[in-house]
Amino acid sequence: MEITKETTMGEMLAYDEKIAYILMQEGMHCIGCPSSIGESLEEACMVHGLDVNAVLADIHHYEETKKQK
Is residue 14 part of a domain? Predict the structure, then answer.
């Protein structure tokens, strides 16, 4: 799965629940909130005042690191 700005929070967490740790480190502590599941990564970042490109880079870095193991 390729995670983009348009990927919903629900899709990401269904793909790999460990992404929640990255999101929480960025300041998104409402990962389990039912309304967040349908939001895109971009929408969630906007609500939390985060730079979507930085969060996306962290997620992609995690995915690359995971592949190397």
Answer: yes
Which residues neighbour 67 within 8 Å (Cβ) at sequence distance 6 or greater?
A: none
Per-residue pLDDT of 5-62, as tens digits, reads: 999 999 999 999 999 999 999 988 777 778 788 999 999 999 999 999 999 999 999 9
Domain that residue 33 falls in: 9-68
Helices (H), the chain: 9-15, 19-26, 41-48, 52-68
**3 in any annotated domain:** no
d(CA 44, CA 25): 14
Whether this model's pTM surpasses 0.85: yes
**Number of compact structural domains in the chain:** 1
The whole-angstrom separation of Cα 1 and Cα 40 is 15
